[in-house]
Structures are given as structure tokens and as C-alpha cells.
């Protein structure tokens, strides 16, 4: 059957009449329910910011290792901040089926990344290469603000599409506790990937509410085809300003398992599928992990609990859940 992932015009929700808003909202929640993913255009994250992702991503990751080491992230259960070198995070651990008999710790990710949280975060302070890369902090903070705003508007659309009271989702996301990630996947030989111990990113779900993703022209993001479990299909974006959005674990918990998180991976890009030798070029992308505020409950919402479907998840707060999941990555 394959995956029919439509490109939805989010401006019809942002600026449309009530009928247009309802139609787009229901399309969004239907697509999330069926696939765990949507694609949006006219989403409010400006072209300038999206183009800045590629500009500043290349500038950051082309810094010397010595420069990046000044802001290295030290692994642990708290939110990630600064630079994580290749192999620091292991997404294979988030899904036990990935191991398939392989020794623990051998299934590595072929990527490096920069992470930050809300501007001015006092609980988990951000760190930037301010001396080595002037202007980077300003760009990242502007990008964070635009992505956070877009996510809150998507939450509003979900409230409309799911026919639940206004504020049910949005109010649990203020103040901001989201995380922004800039990603670089170095060039790697197809032979290395074919050995089966390294992937650009292993099949996994994210553990926030939703994740926004922008990918460069190379591509490589794949989602699970739910009509053919454990078969992945490429997510094609026709322009750099098309935004891919996937449902993540917290939304799955809030909906009591009725809207499941989107399983995805980063694989050989579509143009190189089937090749047995050669090199996969470097890839740049960026993700915005939209999170509930740290004290918000990530247990099932009352709107999704019934005598026929009792609560399936524990009532813990978002920071506790984050720490539980991050601890698995290291």
C-alpha cells in the first residue's frame, strides 16, 4: 500500500475561516493517527530561518574539534546542552528490537549534534561557541522562538481536530522546555553501513510531544509504513521549507495510546538505495523536540480514559519522563 503523506497548508488553519480551520485540523489529527507523521508548508518558520539552518549548521560543524570540545555535552540523564560528538548518543537503545542479537553497545549512530533548550534556561543553562562563532547564539535563539510558536499552534490545531477543550494541550507546554538540535551526518561508506552495526540513526521514536524536522536536499529520513510493519519508506520533501512533523512518545501517552508515536530512522538517501559500494555524502538536518513544561503530567489525559480504555501509562511529570528516556541513550 505504501504511505500517502499529504503536504498540508497550515496557513489555512492560522488564517482561514472556521470551516477551513476545522478541515485542516482534522486532516492533521487524522494523518497523525494513521501515520504518526505530517508534512506542512506555510507553517510560520520563515524561509530566512530555514536557510539559516544550513548556513549556521555548516559553520558550526566545520569548526575544529578543539573549538567544539569547549562546549562538549557530558552524557547523563539531564537535557542535552552543547556539542555531542559522533557516537555519543545511541538511538538503537531506544528500541529493543534493534539489537537482534548484536552485543550491547556495538550499534552506533553516525552523527554529531548541537543541542540547546529555551533561551535563558536557568535550570539547565545553554552553552554556545560565542567566541569562536559570533552570531550563532542569536540565530539559534530566533529559530527556537519561531519553532516553539509553530508547535503551540500545531497543538491548538490538534485540540480542534480532536474536539477537546481549548487549552488542554497548549497549557501543558508553557513555560517552554523544548530542545533544538542541529545535526550533521558525516560522509560514510555504504560498505560501513551495510555491515549492520552503524546507522545514521536507528529506528526509534522521540520522547517529546511532537518533533519538527527540516532536512537538506540529500534526504534520508524514513518512516514506518504501518500497513507493512517494520518496512520503512522515505519521507520526500520537495523544498527545504517543507516541515516534517512526527508524533512523539508524550503525545502517545497523553492520548492513552490512541495516537501512536511515529517510528523513524535515518538511512541511505533515496538516490543511493540499492547501491552496494561508494560513499554516502554528508547530510545536514535540524530537529525541534517540542516538550511539555517540566512539571506537567505526561500521564493519559482524562479525555482519552474510559471504562473500556483505562489509563495505560503512569502519571509522572515531563522532566522525570525525559530523564528516564535520556538515561537509556547513554
TrEMBL record:
Residues 86-99 have a biased composition (Basic and acidic residues). Residues 73-105 are annotated as: Disordered. GO terms for molecular function: metal ion binding; oxidoreductase activity. Coiled coil: none annotated. Signal peptide: none annotated. One of its GO terms (biological process) is small molecule biosynthetic process. InterPro entries: DIOX_N (IPR026992), IPNS-like_FE2OG_OXY (IPR044861), IPNS-like_sf (IPR027443), Iron_ascorbate_oxido_reductase (IPR050231), Oxoglu/Fe-dep_dioxygenase_dom (IPR005123). Keywords: Iron, Metal-binding, Oxidoreductase. It comes from the Eukaryota. Residues 175-292 form the Fe2OG dioxygenase domain. Pfam families: 2OG-FeII_Oxy (PF03171), DIOX_N (PF14226). Belongs to the iron/ascorbate-dependent oxidoreductase family. This is Fe2OG dioxygenase domain-containing protein. It comes from Alectoria fallacina.
Amino acid at each position: 500500500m505504501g504511505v500517502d503523506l499529504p503536504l498540508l497548508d497550515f496557513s489555512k488553519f492560522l488564517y482561514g475561516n472556521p470551516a477551513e480551520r476545522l478541515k485542516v485540523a482534522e486532516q492533521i489529527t487524522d494523518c497523525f493517527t494513521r501515520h504518526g507523521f505530517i508534512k506542512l508548508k506555510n507553517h510560520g518558520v520563515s524561509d530566512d530561518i530555514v536557510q539559516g539552518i544550513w548556513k549556521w549548521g555548516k559553520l558550526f560543524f566545520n569548526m575544529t574539534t578543539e573549538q567544539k570540545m569547549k562546549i562538549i555535552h557530558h552524557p547523563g540523564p539531564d537535557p542535552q546542552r552543547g556539542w555531542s560528538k559522533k557516537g555519543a548518543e545511541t538511538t538503537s537503545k531506544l528500541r529493543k528490537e534493534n539489537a537482534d542479537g548484536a552485543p550491547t553497545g556495538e550499534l552506533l549512530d553516525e552523527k554529531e549534534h548541537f543541542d540547546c533548550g529555551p533561551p535563558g534556561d536557568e535550570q539547565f543553562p545553554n552553552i554556545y561557541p560565542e567566541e569562536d562563532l559570533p552570531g550563532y547564539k542569536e540565530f539559534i535563539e530566533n529559530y527556537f522562538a519561531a519553532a516553539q510558536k509553530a508547535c503551540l499552534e500545531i497543538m491548538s490545531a490538534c485540540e480542534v481536530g480532536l474536539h477537546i477543550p481549548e487549552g488542554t494541550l497548549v497549557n501543558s507546554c508553557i513555560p517552554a522546555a523544548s530542545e533544538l538540535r542541529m545535526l550533521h551526518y558525516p560522509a560514510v561508506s555504504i560498505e560501513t553501513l551495510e555491515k549492520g552495526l552503524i546507522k545514521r540513526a536507528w529506528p526509534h521514536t522521540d520522547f517529546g510531544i511532537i518533533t519538527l524536522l527540516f532536512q537538506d536536499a540529500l534526504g534520508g529520513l524514513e518512516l514506518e509504513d504501518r500497513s507493512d510493519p517494520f518496512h520503512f519508506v522515505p519521507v520526500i520533501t520537495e523544498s527545504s521549507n517543507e516541515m516534517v512533523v512526527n508524533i512523539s512518545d508524550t503525545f502517545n501517552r497523553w492520548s492513552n495510546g490512541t495516537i501512536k508515536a511515529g517510528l523513524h530512522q535515518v538511512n541511505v538517501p533515496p538516490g543511493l538505495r540499492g547501491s552496494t559500494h561508494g560513499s554516502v555524502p554528508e547530510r545536514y538536518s535540524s530537529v525541534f523536540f517540542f516538550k511539555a513544561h517540566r512539571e506537567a503530567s505526561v500521564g493519559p489525559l482524562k479525555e482519552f480514559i474510559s471504562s473500556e480504555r483505562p489509563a495505560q501509562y503512569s502519571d509522572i511529570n515531563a522532566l522525570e519522563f525525559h530523564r528516564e528516556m535520556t538515561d537509556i541513550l547513554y
